[in-house]
Amino acid sequence: MNIQALVVKVASRCNINCTYCYMYNHADQSYLVQPKFMSKSTVEALKEKIKNHCLSHNLNSFFVVLHGGEPLLSSVKDLAFFLETLHSLHEDGINIIFAMQTNGMLISKQHCELFNKYNVGVGISLDGDKEVNDMYRIDKKGNGTFERVKQGINVAKEHMEFPLGCLSVINFQSSPIDLYEAYRSLGFSTINLLLLDENYDSIDQVPRLKNADWLIELFNYWYDLEGNKKTSIIKFEDFINLIFGSESSSESAGKGYNKLAVIETNGDIESLDVLKICGESFTKHKFNLHTNEFDDIFQSDLIDVYYNSKQMLCKKCLACPVNEVCGGGYLPHRYSSKNGFNNPSVYCDDLLMLITHIQNRVIDSLPENLIEETGIQKLTYQDAVKLIEEKLPTIPEPAYAKKLESFALSN
Ligand code: SF4
Ligand code: SF4
Fold first, then answer.
1. What is the number of the ligand 2 atom nearest to the C-alpha of 334?
2. What are the phi and psi torsion angles at 169 (to 5°)?
3. 106 vs 16: CA distance, rounded Å
């Protein structure tokens, strides 16, 4: 087991207050005791621990995603120190690949110069056009943020040498095609769509199959576009690659391991931050950069379950014909205070509907001789549901089920 990517919280607060934010507006309020910014000594400890880990696991490249809160709340000087400190690991033969996720409102020319210098891939969080974005992405006074994000995007477009990506939470009250066209007109090179972070304790708010209807409408529109009008939609490309048996780097699809950890501003090494939606201090492990190596975190059951989340599937997922594509869904979306993680995703029906739809559309576009050669077959959503119902009673309880259930509140 090893870690190959870190989400690093260089700032633990945000300049806005999105209503759905898993950091500030869900069960876990532990950010309140975190320092607002990462100190220089913690950045230096981070460098040392990445170096030790890469050397002991023969890794010559390592991903670092700057995150917050809002990472651009850090001063330009502090960000430059962070980037230069980690970049200097190339002297030890380690190439750090940087990315940043930001709400984009604070981007300046000076930031762009840093992004250019250190090849930082920048993703902007935005939920569509002004009307849709401003439903939930609001500032602390309740005002919409779209216009200010757009100003930041314009600054980035003027001064950055690389195109921006976009991270967007699906709002099925919006038109998927309007949203796609809004992103194209803003010039994003990739669109990363996220399902709203919900689990079994909160899912009542999300009507069944609404996300599938929305995503299928977008998929059909996007899939039929000519190449030069097609902006990369990572979720769809991942599913298509997985249907053809390729790997996906996504944490929420496929069969690979999740080799990612999170660093808080005080140097704490934690599990995936979205797991904060499962409860207060849910991701805390008492591991810290100043006292631990990354290998120490594998003692934690939560790290183990997250790392192996696409192997540790519940019985329904083990019976599911698309589990090698779906991967059982995103781990935070599987949680219930009753069963821990021994559940399919709360979005199971949406995922099954979407994946079978994509598979059938892709098969429809293949030449007949290839379909015959590969023996690839269509599978409707209804057939998949029936197959699961037939197979489920024959699946024994997996040995790891107790570990998945150990996170239930009764344990
Ligand atoms: S920009 Fe990100 S960190 Fe800030 S409130 Fe919105 S979702 Fe949370
Ligand atoms: S579609 Fe549902 S049952 Fe199938 S793997 Fe995904 S979450 Fe599990």
1. 7
2. -85, 130
3. 11
Rounded distance between C-alpha atoms, residue 287 and residue 407, angstroms:
19
Name the residue among 148, 87, 92, 73 with its Cα closest to residue 115.
87
Atom of ligand 1 nearest to the CA of 103: 1
pLDDT tens figures, 293-341: 999 999 999 999 999 999 999 999 999 999 999 999 999 999 999 999 9
Angstrom distance (rounded) from CA 371 to CA 363: 7
Our CA angle for 16, 40, 1, nearest 5°, is 85
Has this prediction a pTM greater than 0.85? yes
Tokens of 163: 């195109």
Choices 3.40.50.720, 1.20.120.1200, 3.60.40.10, 3.20.20.70: CATH for 5-307 = 3.20.20.70
The residue among 265, 284, 262 whose CA lies nearest residue 273 is 262
40-to-43, 64, 71, 77, 204 alpha-carbon distances in Å: 5, 17, 15, 11, 44
- From the CA of 24, give the closest atom in ligand 1: 8
Per-residue 3-state assignment (H helix, E strand, C coil) for 177-207: HHHHHHHHHHCCCEEEEECCCCCCCCHHHCC
Q: Mutation test of ligand 2: which of 195, 323, 381, 385 has the most ligand atoms closer than 8 Å to its C-beta? A: 323
DSSP single-letter state for residue 277: G
Chain-centre distance of CA 187, in angstroms?
Answer: 22
Per domain, the residue ranges of the chain are 5-307, 315-405
Residue 102 near residue 58 (C-beta atoms within 8 A): no
Find out whether 171 and 207 touch, Cβ atoms under 8 Å: no
Give tens-digit pLDDT for 232-285: 999 999 999 998 888 887 888 999 999 999 999 999 999 999 999 998 889 988
Name the percent of the chain in helix, strand, coil, to the closest 5.
Answer: 45, 15, 40
With both helix axes pointing from N to C terminus, report the angle between 210-223 and 234-243 in degrees, rounded to the nearest 10.
80
Q: Residue 348: nearest ligand to its CA?
A: 2
**Which residue CA neighbors atom 7 of ligand 1 most closely?**
21
